TrEMBL record:
Its EC number is 2.3.1.84. InterPro entries: AB_hydrolase_1, AB_hydrolase_4_sf, AB_hydrolase_fold, ABHD4. It comes from Venustampulla echinocandica. This is alcohol O-acetyltransferase. Belongs to the AB hydrolase superfamily. AB hydrolase 4 family. GO terms for molecular function: acetylesterase activity; alcohol O-acetyltransferase activity; monoacylglycerol lipase activity. The keyword Transferase applies. It is an enzyme of class 2 (transferase).
Length: 423
């Protein structure tokens, strides 16, 4: 137990991280940026371990109020047909739509017709955790200070809701999984075309962090995001699943809760999913735990013979070697869901584009301070602001004095192929 909630932050990275040019012309490396962005981690001393921190998320936490307008997209990749919902942060309004989460209404389709923008404010693309959505408090704690900043540092933001989440009704048998990068890809491409002058950044939480890392790795040097930050990523899903199953609390509390949440989500869309003809709903009724859900749903849906095969393919650890933008990862060593054993400590030492910050306390997407604020929002906001306003990301950068254009294979980095499933 750390003394009075004073957690220790440890940074893991390659010997020489990405060197970037600041707006004043001086040089700074990625590790220094991440360390400068990370304030002391002082958490609620009454929540003195990962279990207490994580379970406190079940308590009512209104968080800062964020208002959204929802735009529906039709997938432009025929392999992943169907619709998905993206919620755009807007100014407060008084309308109420009972078919959507609180403080959310639909965009009028005319609002986005033939839109063009000379606006150069940075835009944040957000991916939420398993079965979550734009309503989650952990992401609203990050959004609030970004959109509420002074005019010269104000952000725009949107949340890509995983299919079927946040009260979105799916229009095809396809839900999502831990490697579901296609909707993020389409959203980023649409944003780049619609707002050509806005620099784009990304943030992912838990499963969304895993998806975002896979997306960035798949895109490689063509990634349209300037930089990204991820929180509580599960990284190695196979290791994490085994860890959950190895203890009573992991199996009966966390795995059962996550499995139950996914069963409820599937039940909301059962009629549409049944049209795919791949699932045995009698077996699904008997599911108790998350790994059982993945065995009976994700495996048959995407052609994986076992849940282990799905976990190994969907894990984001190897995607690190395809990352070609500054990526800051924040995790808690006492996270009972995305366990410490699954963190890529060795892998980040072999890529100059990634820095891993690990706090000794914090739980899973928790990091509760006294008063209810979430500590993770502080380094996330600081890092994003540094990348958007203090660093000239467009300027040439270097690793160990070498131009990046000639150092793609430095430190053994490789770009993993974009994988698709047999459906």
């Amino acid at each position: 137990m750390e003394w009075l909630g004073r957690a220790k932050a440890t940074f893991t990275h390659s010997p020489s991280t990405l060197q970037l040019k600041k707006k004043d012309g001086s040089l700074i490396d990625l590790a220094s940026i991440c360390q400068e962005a990370t304030p002391p981690c002082r958490l609620n001393p009454l929540l003195f371990n990962g279990h207490l921190q994580t379970m406190w998320t079940a308590m009512k936490d209104d968080g800062p109020p964020i208002f959204y307008n929802r735009k529906l997209f039709e997938a432009n990749d025929k392999d992943y047909e169907g619709s998905f919902a993206v919620d755009f942060v807007v100014k407060p309004f008084s309308e109420v739509d009972a078919t959507l989460p609180s403080r959310t209404t639909y965009f009028n389709e005319e609002d986005f017709k033939d839109i063009a923008s000379s606006d150069s404010r940075p835009m944040l693309v957000i991916l939420h955790g398993l079965s979550g959505g734009s309503h989650e408090a952990y992401l609203r704690h990050v959004i609030a200070p970004l959109i509420g900043a002074e005019d010269d540092r104000q952000w725009e933001a949107c949340v890509v809701n995983s299919r079927g989440c946040a009260m979105h009704k799916i229009t095809s048998p396809i839900l999502y999984n831990a490697r579901a990068t296609w909707d993020c890809r389409q959203t980023v491409s649409w944003l780049r075309k619609t707002f050509p002058n806005r620099p784009l950044f990304g943030i992912g939480f838990s499963l969304g962090a895993n998806i975002l890392t896979n997306y960035i790795g798949e895109e490689g040097e063509h990634c349209m995001l300037k930089a990204a930050v991820i929180c509580s990523s599960p990284w190695n899903l196979d290791v994490g699943s085994m860890a959950l199953q190895s203890t009573w609390i992991g199996r009966e509390i966390y795995s059962k809760t996550l499995g139950t949440n996914m069963k409820k989500l599937l039940a909301l869309h059962e009629d549409e999913v049944r049209k795919g003809g791949k699932l045995d709903f009698e077996k699904i009724k008997k599911v108790k735990y998350l790994h059982e859900f993945d065995r009976e749903v994700q495996g048959p849906s995407w052609g994986y013979p076992t849940e282990g095969a799905y976990y190994r393919d969907a894990s984001s650890t190897d995607s690190l070697f395809g990352v070609r933008i500054p990526l800051f990862s924040i995790s808690a060593a006492d996270d009972p869901v995305a366990c410490n054993q699954s963190l890529p400590y060795e892998e980040v030492k072999h890529t100059p584009y990634v820095v891993l910050c690990t706090t000794s306390l914090g739980g899973h997407l928790s990091w509760f301070e006294i008063g209810g604020h979430r500590w993770h929002a502080r380094p996330c906001v600081n890092y994003l602001n540094k990348m958007a306003f203090e660093v000239d990301i467009e300027a040439p950068a270097a690793i160990n004095g070498h131009d990046l254009e000639t150092s793609g294979q430095m430190n053994g980095c490789f770009a993993p192929m974009r994988r698709k499933w047999q459906r």
